Amino acid sequence: MSSPRLTDLSRVTGPAKVPNYEPGDHGVGIVHLGVGAFHRAHQAVMTDDAIARSGGDWRINGVSLRSKEIAGALNPQNGLYTLIERGPGGTEARVIGSIANIIAADPAATLQALCDEKIRVVTITVTEKGYGIDRAAGGPDKKHPAVAADLANPGHPTGVLGLLVAALKFRRDAGMAPFTVLSCDNLPENGKLLRLGTVGFAREIDPELSDWIDEKVAFPSSMVDRITPASTEETLAEALSQTGCEDKAAVETEPFIQWVIEDDFPQGRPDWEAGGALFVADVAPYERMKLTMLNGSHSLIAYSGFLAGHRYVRDVMGDRALAKLVRRHLDAAADIMPPLAGIDFAEYGEALVERFRNPAIAHETYQIAMDGSQKLPQRIFAPALIALEDSRDIRTFTFATAAWMRYALGRKDDGTTYALRDPMADEIEAAVAGLSNPDDIYNALSALPGLLPTELTADDRFAAPVKEILGTMLEAGVRAAIDREPE
Ligand code: CS2
Q: By residue range, what is the domain housing residue 272?
């Protein structure tokens, strides 16, 4: 007999917990751009907790900017899905009721949703590359395809900046309050960056609107954390056994969850404290800790682990030599953290090691290796520069850089090839085409615009070890380079 689809809480028969509220009793107050697995494992969960504890019309109108896949899974389920938390001690499941519906690859409907007066907060997870912000200049990246298209046709926007600006224009012209814009991506000072991008985009088409946005719209920064691998068939099978229902939108994640947010919501917000969110005056030090320690070592794990033949993060942690390099990285990263009240960086590092080792989570190194050009500047290069300026040991940052440069060649030691999956893939491939000498590869990748700071690449304390490690990787293989690395 086939199982019923998860369309209604009354259908749930397994051990999964269900919300203590009736989802349909609560209206929508949030539009979320980018309804991937991470959103469903993070903000949607905290919003579910908030509604459960304090009520309110805070359900989420989700938007998938390009793909129709998630809408196809979630809309027939009335937004319901199973969250599976997998820890070393076991698995727990709950059904989440905070998502109302999904708009898929439909810019006009997205704009309409953003113009709805009931929307008071717009949350965003579109990955680092999704915004179209020129981080160096602090404004819109006019070469980004969506930004270019939206600047040419601002009345029919398709990208994040264009949609936000068009919706804010409509709201201003209609005498409505704006919404608060909350970026939840792994970018340094994500709120400030998004403000610069949005205000800068508006300046190109309507300077008065730009001033209005700058004055009236809040862009709090936030630091988000939860390790969430892509869902697989096993995720869906687990959801079935936990709910007795067929669920095509289930997600699995680790038990740990963290959200640190600047409390600047003029139009109100859900009671996210109910899910454990921490509200602070300045998120920057938390962001820096997470980007440098968690994400930095994640990227080291991804490039060196993938090239050494490890499919999952947990396998990398089971490789003694690599696990030592991860600890070395965490120590070096902890050393450059400015003090943060209530946080012991050594303990934070230990907790990260345990999270990376979680045997129940199958997090692919290849997934984390994606989009290196967007991730490494804040994860590896900026910390390397700080360590260099402080005259600290920068060996681990040079090792991570060499591993990424080796990865950029697109083939493993055994000759297997793979796609780079990076918005700069074409430039990277063209830069290293035909090169085999470490110095040439180093110089070619260092010359790519906006990636490695010249203060770093021109400094021999950085350049020499990167070239040396890359040379070992090319001559003796990545395995040998890992094994030869001093602790
Ligand atoms: C990872 C992150 O894929 C990646 O680049 O480093 O997605 C990481 O899992 C999250 O930031 C954890 O909060």
A: 9-280
CB of 290 within 6 A of ligand 1: the answer is no
Q: Which residue spans within 70-190 are E strands per DSSP? A: 81-87, 90-96, 99-104, 121-124, 133-134, 139-140, 180-183
Same-domain status, 262 and 387? no
Q: Measuring CA to CA, which residue among 96, 367, 95 is closest to residue 231? A: 367
**330: which strand partners?**
none
pLDDT band at 298 (very low <50, low <70, confident <90, very high): very high
- Model confidence at 472, pLDDT cuts 50, 70, 90, reads very high
CA angle 355, 193, 389 (to 5 degrees): 70
C-alpha angle 396/401/403, rounded to 5°?
Answer: 95
Model pTM?
Answer: 0.97
Pocket residue to mutate for ligand 1, from 38, 186, 289, most atoms within 8 A of Cβ: 186
Which residues on neighbouring strands pair with residue 259, listed in sequence order? 224
CA 415, CA 48: separation in Å to the nearest integer? 47
Q: Determine the distance separating the centroid of ligand 1 and the alpha carbon of 165, expressed in angstroms.
A: 28
Looking up residue 274, the CATH number of its domain turns out to be: 3.40.50.720
Is 4 inside a domain boundary? no
The verdict on residue 330 lying in a domain is yes
Ligand 1 centroid, distance to 295 Cα (angstroms): 6
217 and 102 part of one domain = yes
- Cα Dmax for the chain: 68
Measured distance CA(267)–CA(265) in Å, rounded: 5
Which atom of ligand 1 is closest in space to residue 371's alpha carbon?
A: 5
